[in-house]
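Lecture notes, part 5. Sequence design as translation. It can be helpful to think of inverse folding as translation between two languages: the language of shapes and the language of residues. The source text, in structure tokens, appears below.
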């Protein structure tokens, strides 16, 4: 059994993916070619943003968004320590300081009520992550941002395809970023990412910054990066995208099925009111997590822990001066969560086997 079944997905979409890739191979334009622009249009429409800008990864999408807002040393960006490292790594790369706020233990997203107390006169923005695949409380977060004059980046690396009160992840005001890492809900066959915004100024800055600070060829108005999405990756995504809405539905159904059958033995994901969930990870919670993981491994069920060490306890962030106990909800989640196999192509039989083995561990 695969944790994420990319081979079955390829087998199902092979003609479309090959056709799109063949166009690129025949056309000979591999960087900043027509497939990238077509994908940007399609995805901007899908999320409901005016602009989409393809990037080399979800990490670079975050870095570029921060650069577009002119974030620099001395600035502070509020985010959570319970996320993939890239969220806070991007902040550190700009020279700014991530200021952590603990998570809401129910959704694992930033605890909105605690954002305000983390804001100082150096705060420039908030990065709110849609962890595991559901949007953070964007309306309330945007209203705090309005009050203090901050920008908001929704790190939608895991939540592309999710909705909140009828609005799609990455389509909120200010900026949304996502990742096309192969195992993400919409994944390419290498690294890729995207910045979404309806702000013309931010979009223009990201476009130049991702291409070495060039808005005109060989005129470098700013220090940028090589942060472009290549056309072969865009082609893979164009081959997959027409079925993405069906995959989102399939993932939601699969997530509900897991929750119905496991809710009496482990903590199952709570979908917040107004939200849909894409289950980029289907993540359960139990105090005996490590023993459960060992039992599943013995029975050939792959699992993954997203994430075993919160960022404030990682060596790379030691300079921030945090220690054990600073963010208790994040630390408890890191001890107790485990993600189960999930993809639109997980068969019912395999899902039943995962469910059977989890229940068996609890003697049910
Ligand atoms: C929440 C989050 N942010 C950022 C990233 C970075 O994306 P990438 O791996 O494409 O750089 C990821 C995924 O890997 C992620 O899960």
């Amino acid at each position: 059994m695969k944790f994420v079944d990319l081979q079955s997905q390829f087998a199902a979409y092979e003609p479309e993916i090959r056709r799109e890739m063949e166009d690129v191979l025949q056309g000979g334009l591999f960087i900043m070619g027509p497939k990238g622009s077509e994908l940007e249009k399609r995805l901007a429409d899908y999320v409901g943003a005016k602009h989409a800008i393809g990037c080399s990864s979800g990490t670079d999408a975050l870095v570029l968004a921060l650069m577009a807002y002119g974030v620099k040393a001395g600035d502070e960006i509020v985010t959570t320590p319970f996320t993939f490292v890239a969220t806070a790594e991007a902040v550190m790369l700009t020279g700014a300081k991530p200021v952590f706020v603990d998570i809401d233990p129910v959704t694992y997203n930033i605890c909105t009520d605690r954002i305000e107390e983390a804001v100082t006169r150096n705060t420039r923005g908030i990065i709110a992550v849609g962890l595991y695949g559901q949007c953070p409380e964007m309306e309330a977060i945007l209203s705090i941002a309005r009050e203090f004059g901050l920008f908001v980046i929704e790190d939608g690396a895991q939540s592309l395809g999710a909705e909140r009160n009828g609005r799609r992840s990455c389509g909120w005001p200010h900026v949304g970023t996502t990742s096309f890492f192969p195992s993400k809900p919409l994944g390419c066959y290498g690294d890729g990412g995207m910045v979404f915004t309806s702000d013309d100024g931010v979009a223009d800055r990201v476009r130049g910054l991702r291409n070495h600070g060039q808005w005109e060829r060989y005129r470098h108005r700013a220090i940028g990066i090589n942060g472009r999405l290549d056309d072969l990756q865009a082609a893979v995504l164009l081959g997959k995208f027409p079925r993405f809405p069906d995959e989102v539905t399939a993932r939601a159904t699969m997530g509900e099925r897991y929750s119905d059958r496991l809710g009496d033995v482990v903590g199952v994901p709570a979908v917040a009111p107004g939200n849909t969930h894409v289950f980029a990870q289907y993540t359960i919670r139990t105090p005996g997590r490590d023993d459960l993981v060992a039992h599943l491994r013995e029975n050939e069920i792959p699992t993954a822990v997203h994430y075993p060490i919160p960022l404030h306890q990682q060596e790379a962030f030691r300079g921030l001066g945090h220690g054990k106990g600073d963010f208790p909800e994040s630390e408890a989640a890191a001890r107790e969560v485990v993600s189960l196999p999930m993809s639109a192509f997980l068969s019912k039989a395999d899902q039943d086997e995962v469910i059977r083995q989890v229940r068996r561990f609890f003697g049910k």
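The translated text above is only one of many valid answers, since several sequences can fold into similar shapes. The CA atoms of residues 3 and 65 lie 31 Å apart.
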